[in-house]
Design a protein that fits this description.
The chain contains 29 helices and 23 strands. The chain has about 800 residues and is α/β, with parallel strands linked by helices. About 55% of the residues lie in helices and about 20% in strands. Strand 8 and strand 9 form a beta hairpin. Helix 4 runs antiparallel to helix 5. The strands form five sheets. The protein has an eight-stranded mixed barrel. Strands 6-5-9-8-7 form a five-stranded antiparallel sheet. A five-stranded mixed sheet has the order 11-12-10-13-14, sandwiched between helices. Bound molecules: ligand C2E and magnesium ion (MG) (2 copies). One magnesium ion binds next to loops.
């Protein structure tokens, strides 16, 4: 160290040494800026800037060396060989250029270290070639240790200069890099100069062609000028590029911010910048984004690798938020040039809405939207799976419960669809409450629900579930608007006892449900094989009923209604008959309930009404025609209008038509029934209460509507003369009629003694086999057609 110091202070002109250091610093500064320019450029432009950098640093080293040589005063005449001096410049340019190429070939530390060391070697090679051009009358002796130290210093500082100078692109890094390069050049020079000793020898002559220090000073001045020009050029280009990239970045940022999708620009695994949409999505501030590792947002290695690859393929991932939450996103990455350098742009699309939509679609496809319960599809899938699972197990049972709301249609009609919907939701809620996790409640459609209860130890355990559901519904019913109406019937079929196929099991549960309904509702029944036969027969009859009308299998018979004192016929009751091709005559008591259940009664009832009215309209005498009307018909909102149309069509006077309704029809939907009855009354149609005494026998029902007649049910009349209890009831009803001012008709009068009893009790009208069996109209003289009708018939 001391040798080097002595060499600088004692053997050099310090002013020129300072000048050499200045020129060196200037050249190094230019070289650093130019190296950044090389990094930013590509292809031919890159080669151009590499060349310019090599020339700049080559001239810089060369000029530094020779100014320092001018500062060297060995107190002997000196000169420089022109050719070797020129060669040293070429060596400097070529070797440092090679080093620069190596340093910038790849953005890796290894490249920078190797490239920097190569530049150091270039400086050394230039120095020794330059020293070979140095001529003095004497010999040069070299200290190998100092020579090695000089080489090491040049390579070491060169490597450090490149690493520091290219680590970042800001001016601090560049200045540090340039200073380290200056140190590399100067340390090489002065250490190498300290390594040399001149041994004067008068026999050695300076060649004639060698340049004197004057000419060397001229060459150095030119070289320095070249460096100045190149430095100015590098500075100008750098400033211009920086301005351009700033503009480009601002423009890109503006564009990117306008995008709805999130955009991130990444430099390797680091975020360079991001647009406003991404900042909002990832909940990060604009200030905090630059330099953040991409892994902060996408922690999974596989995602990072795919992004870095920039393959322009869309894939889904999860964006991690600062609070630890995640957002499902769709990503696509592709390489872009940003701020003059290659980057990867990542488009980030928020797919929360899409995911929510997908989930909705899935839910809709598998669930019922009203109750939120699994739908028929999910139910079928689960049932299949459960049966598959249980196939191998013995001693375990699966119960399938089918639920159907009692009187759901009436709730819908009476209180509107909103109340009907609320009732379905209520049933879903109540039933879900009492079921275990392993059970499945599904809505199969309409008012049909089903429950899968797997893993039962005994079939009878299913009744516990059924009872719990019924109880929950009963308890909940207290508060609802459709009070008391929300009840359900349940049919139960057991796997494997009843069936092993899901469809058969479901059909059996349905049959049991039907039985539960037929046996009083609001209860449950287990499937029994004999139910199947009945249910099939019933379904068959239902099917045949649908076609009976078109096949003309219906006809009417008429039963006379007579005054008991005179025996005079005051009217006829029309009674429906079905003559089935195989079954023969089917009783209305059997088929009317089936027709009511599936609504076919509306069509049939319309036909009965029209046929009966047409017949009555043709009679000579203005007798009454009584027509039985089902509750289902009466609850039709347009029932009164259809009667009015029939009256107009057949020409029957309204007061001659008497509609017979049962108390049950009234009770099921009081307000709807009353509305229809009032409309009928307004038309002038009469209304009779049929089968009084068999249903609720409620006085309030009688009071609720101004009936025109009470018909005491035949079952009371039949034993009236022998059974005192029946006699009391008949007397009471007759008294009731008198009190309300209503005529009372006794049905089912079969014997003379019954007739006598009734006459004695001041019953005015009667109907029954004793007074006249139901028969075709032609058999009754009272039902003679008009003369005009006769004439037209004869014609
Ligand atoms: P209902 O309206 O009470 O009709 C009287 C029933 O008693 C008729 O039975 C009739 O044949 C029967 N009957 C009459 N006198 C006697 C008697 O002295 N002894 C006995 N044992 N029975 C007698 P039918 O025709 O079998 O009708 C049964 C029920 O079917 C009717 O009872 C009525 O509720 C219903 N029905 C009949 N036709 C129609 C119709 O066109 N529409 C509707 N909705 N229901 C009808
Ligand atoms: Mg009747
Ligand atoms: Mg009756």
């Amino acid at each position: 160290m001391l040798t080097v110091y002595n060499c600088i202070v004692d053997e050099h002109d310090l002013r020129l040494v300072i000048l050499a250091a200045l020129v060196c610093t200037l050249a190094s500064m230019a070289a650093m800026n130019l190296l950044h320019q090389v990094l930013r450029s590509r292809d031919r432009l890159r080669a151009f800037w590499l060349g310019v950098s090599a020339v700049s640093i080559g001239f810089g080293i060369w000029a530094t060396h020779f100014i320092a040589m001018l500062a060297f005063s060995p107190s002997l005449p000196t000169a420089y060989d022109g050719l070797l001096t020129g060669a040293s410049l070429v060596v400097a340019i070529v070797l440092t250029g090679f080093g620069m190429w190596a340093a910038t070939a790849q953005r890796k530390l290894d490249n920078r270290l190797a490239g920097g060391a190569l530049i150091g070697c270039g400086i050394t090679a230039m120095h020794f070639t330059g020293m070979a051009a140095f001529e003095v009358p004497g010999h040069l002796a070299w200290d190998p240790v100092l020579v090695a130290a000089a080489l090491a210093a040049a390579a070491g500082f060169g490597a450090a200069a490149v690493c520091v100078g290219l680590a970042r692109s800001d001016w601090r890094a560049r200045v540090c890099g340039a200073l380290l390069l200056t140190v590399a050049i100067c340390s090489l020079h002065f250490t190498a100069m300290a390594a040399v000793s001149i041994l004067p020898d008068a026999s050695v002559e300076i060649s004639q062609s060698a340049a004197t220090p004057f000419w060397l000073a001229v060459a150095v001045a030119i070289a320095s000028f070249v460096i100045l020009v190149i430095t100015a050029l590098a500075l100008w280009v750098d400033l211009r590029d920086q301005q351009r990239s700033r503009l480009e970045v601002t423009r890109m940022q503006g564009l990117a911010d306008a995008a709805v999708e999130g955009l991130i620009v990444c430099d390797g695994q680091e975020v360079a910048t991001a647009n406003a949409s991404f900042l909002a999505l990832a909940d990060v501030s604009a200030k905090a984004i630059a330099g953040r590792p991409l892994a902060t947002f996408f922690p999974h290695r596989a995602v990072l690798d795919r992004l870095e690859a920039g393959l322009s393929e869309v894939f889904e991932a999860e964006l991690t938020l600062p609070d630890g939450g995640t957002v499902p996103v769709e990503l696509i990455s592709r390489p872009v040039s940003y701020a003059g350098r290659p980057h990867v742009a990542v488009a980030v699309r928020d797919i929360r809405q899409r995911k929510a939509n997908e989930a909705d679609i899935h839910r809709l496809a598998h669930h019922d939207s009203l109750t939120g319960l699994p739908n028929r599809r999910s139910f079928a899938t689960r049932l299949d799976a459960e049966l598959d699972r249980m196939a191998g197990q013995s001693g375990k049972y699966l119960a399938l419960l089918c639920l159907d709301l009692d009187r759901f249609k009436e709730v819908n009609d009476l209180f509107g669809h909103a109340a009907g919907d609320a009732m379905l939701q209520k049933v879903a809620r109540c039933a879900s409450r009492v079921l275990d996790d392993g059970h499945m409640l599904a809505r199969l459609g309409g008012d049909e629900f089903a429950v899968i209860v797997p893993g039962l130890a005994a079939p009878a355990s299913a009744s516990v579930v059924a009872e719990a559901i019924l109880k929950a519904l009963r308890e909940d019913s207290q508060t609802a608007q459709s009070d008391g109406l929300a009840s359900t019937s349940i049919g139960i079929a057991i796997y494997p006892t009843d069936a092993s196929e899901p469809e058969v099991l479901l059909s059996h549960a349905d049959t049991a449900l039907y039985r539960a309904k037929a046996e009083g509702r609001n209860t449950y029944r287990f499937y029994e094989p004999k139910m199947g036969v009945e249910a099939r027969d019933r379904r068959l009859m239902e099917h045949e009923l649908r076609h009976a009308m078109t096949r003309g299998e219906f006809h009417l018979v008429y039963q006379p209604q007579k005054l008991l004192d005179s025996g005079e016929v005051v009217g006829f009751e029309a009674l429906l008959r079905w003559t089935h091709p195989e079954r023969g005559n089917v009783s209305p008591a059997l088929f009317v309930p089936i027709a009511e259940e599936n609504g076919i009664i509306i069509q049939i009832g319309h036909w009965v009404m029209e046929t009966a009215c047409r017949a009555a309209a043709s009679w000579e005498k203005p007798l009454t025609i009584a027509v039985n009307v089902s509750a289902v018909q009466l609850h039709q909102p347009d029932f009164a209008r259809s009667v009015e149309t029939i009256l107009a069509k057949t020409g029957l006077a309204a007061h001659r038509l008497e509609i017979e309704i049962t108390e049950t029809a009234l009770v099921r939907d009081m307000s709807r029934a009353l509305a229809s009855l009032r409309q009928l009354k307004e038309l002038g149609v009469k209304v009779a209460m049929d089968d009084f005494g068999t249903g609720y026998s409620s006085l309030s029902n009688l009071r609720a509507f101004p009936f025109d007649k009470i018909k005491i049910d035949g079952s009371f009349i039949r034993s009236v003369d022998t059974n005192e209890q029946a006699a009391t009831i008949v007397r009471a009803v007759l008294g009731l009629g008198k009190g309300l001012g209503l005529p009372v008709l006794a049905e089912g009068v079969e014997t003379a003694s019954e007739l006598r009893f009734l006459a004695a009790e001041a019953c005015t009208i009667g109907q029954g086999y004793y007074l006249g069996r139901p028969a075709a109209l032609e058999t009754f003289a009272e039902a003679e057609p008009h003369a005009a009708d006769d004439a037209s018939r004869a014609a």
